[in-house]
Structure of Catalase:
Amino acid sequence: MERRDSKDRSLDAARTNDDNSWLTTQQGVRVEHTDDSLKAGVRGPTLLEDFHAREKITHFDHERIPERVVHARGAGAYGYFKAYDTRLRDYTAAEFLTEPKLTTPVFVRFSTVAGSRGSADTVRDVRGFATKFYTKQGNYDLVANNMPVFFIQDGVKFPDFVHAVKPEPASEIPQAQSAHDTFWDFVWLHPESLHMVMWLMSDRALPRSYRMMQGFGVHTFRLVDFEGNGTFVKFHWRPILGSHSLEWAECQRIAGADPDYNRRDLWDAIEAGQFPEFELGVQLISELREHDFDFDLLDPTKIVPEEQVPVQPVGRMVLNRNPQNFFAETEQVAFHTANVVPGIDFTNDPLLQARNFSYLDTQLIRLGGPNFSQLPINRPVVEVHTNQRDGYGQHTIHTHPTSYTKNSLGNGCPMSMTQQEPPLDVYRHYTQRVEGEVIRRRSESFNDHYSQARLFWNSMKEVEQQHIRDAFCFELSKVSSKYVRQRVTEQIAHVDPGLAMGVARKVGVPEPEDFGAALHNDASSALSQVYPVAGFDDAPPSIESRRIAALVCDGVDDTGIRKLASALSAEGALLDLIGPAEGAIRGESGHSVDVSVGLSSTASVLYDAVIVPGGDIAALIETNGSAKHFLLEAFKHHKAVAAFGAGVEVLRRNGLTDAETSPVLVADEEGVIVTSHSGQELPDEFIRSFIDAVALHRIWNRETSHITA
């Protein structure tokens, strides 16, 4: 993959390079220096005529814009999208989806939802996954989340939901959490939210990385072909690295150790050339099948199970360039569900219809008026010709004599299409007959709030169900109102009585009634994240860009470390050497070894696996409490652990393996890989077994008895 040149985008014309330049005012006037204001005497009063100081301070006073009400904390990246083939040509006039020779520039913004700009990355929350396609037919925004459903069915409820999940008004507490009274009061009174709440309580709310996170368009949209025929569509993003999550205990530790964990991970991966890749898939549903399901396709709290409509892969996105200015790009980018191109249209989903109004309205206040689309990050790559004039932030110097249609003084320009058959690249709304009584009521087909919440629960592996159970207990334990806690458990009982009773016992409320009569046993294999995962090959995803820690000290088997590091590097993983302090140590071979990070400056939760090498490693782990905690915490969080040579005895003494130091190789189902060999004698089988264990992401069998191979 090649890093795309920054000149690929028209916005680059607005970039500035301050290297080798002189300081000036905004009017281009050279400034003598900017360390002292203009005064009457060196100790005298500051003079109002100091236009440079006034300009500098005034701009500073006004340089903050309102943060987003939701999705305030984000991270962005540039890249490109390419369709695999022409298979969608029979369904849509959207050229970027149907022409494999096209390379479409994109900008993606990942985000949390509830927290402010200063909140941590690893909170329990929904994640945004918004993609702006700069297509030759105009800008298209796929404003997605990492969960395929939403909390509400109608957009008129969106202010209520956001008010409920935001910090409570008296204390402005808690920040970036749903673990408080008002959110859960909303949940029990709106059972339509239960499906989304099941996702929120699952590991999906704790992504390991933005690069390892799925994305979903949430709504049912419509593809429209050249003849005006429509097909319902659901959009899916699938990360090539696999879909992986953190554990809740890790998230809380990471929020302190590195609150920028996810945005740093994205930035570092792109800078290292390990470009995140995502596959775009679609579920296509004929309009003739609109009413064939036991749910309403227009209901945004429902998924279309992949067993009923498979996801077809149609293209790939690669993110290969970091922004150069966070504010100008990531903060000012404006997404809008109604930014569509020919071949993509809406449905009557009442939440989608409200979003089509709300996003534009929001940008007007955030970005200072109606010309925000002229900002470099929002500007299309195609030419723009409108009769819209003036307003705040107008960048264009209009010279055309007319600003109205129809006109003769400007030769009728800009022209609109009045012909019976407009060109194929003109946007044409899907033609459909609409009739009905004007009524403020929800369709009866939206009334099933429990079936798909139970589908999600049934689809989880045992360990995932335990995590959901623990999440409900944690969240509801923060709710001060016992009445709300009880009502929530009564709602959960409609999803699974056993889950509800277990939660009720933990949060101190009466066990709810058994609602089992209405339950079903349906499941979807695509919903679990535990390997093997539906949609992946038999082999687990690679370990590319994974961070692995090796505990080292003076006398470590540096020869073995180098051999293992070389093998891990060849797989795209990064090995950090964690020692008592930063600097150089002396290895067993007599050579100097550079310590990457000192134990006091890092934590095991920032790594995906840990290695205990041979040599005099026992001296570190048995005498340094931080080193011992690092090892045991990684094991506790179900991460792969490897040891070789004398390191095997260290694991045995700490109860992490039953192996003695004699076996050539023991690779158990608990993800503990050991060998008595060391140095250049490290077996290839040992290295391969460790790599495969890391690729699994977590070793959920860790609570079972050892099985030696």
